[in-house]
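Notebook B, p. 112. Complex prediction, attempt 2.
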Amino acid sequence: AAGVIQSPRHLIKEKRETATLKCYPIPRHDTVYWYQQGPGQDPQFLISFYEKMQSDKGSIPDRFSAQQFSDYHSELNMSSLELGDSALYFCASSPYPTRFYEQYFGPGTRLTVT
Amino acid sequence: SQELEQSPQSLIVQEGKNLTINCTSSKTLYGLYWYKQKYGEGLIFLMMLQKGGEEKSHEKITAKLDEKKQQSSLHITASQPSHAGIYLCGADRKDQGAQKLVFGQGTRLTINP
């Protein structure tokens, strides 16, 4: 069965650089969520999209932005990277916004900021 | 502070033994979800509990919800190496209108052969 695809899997950037993370949801899933998981921490919700519109916003820094495109894939853009942005970034998709707990998570993108 | 507290934070058991992981919420629970995470990988949805006293099983994993205690337990019977990983409980919250999942800090389970 198709799963959530994230790219790249690993990314190394320097401070103040920008990064773009991509997420391809499971086919026919129209809701996408982004999470940030710091080392040894639980995932923190960043932002979600439903039908290409932002639906919920969590603890996403102003330096980050995200969008969902017409093919439902989503991109998380991160600018002015800081050391503290080093984390595992997960994307998840679900078939219905009302069943958001039944999220299917991607493998994550490990971002290292040096 | 952590809304969902899991215990223990790590657990090492011998293959074949039973084990229990607990998740306690500091707020009213309307639903509790369990996920499994392989080290450094994505979360896998295991099961959802919505009603007090509800109990669900998936293969050798059973989860229960005690609404009054605002607590859930995950029990693994006859553990196997494939059960190793990090188990996280999650609950839905509305924060300033945003609906989101909050997670416990996870329980790292190691199975020794």
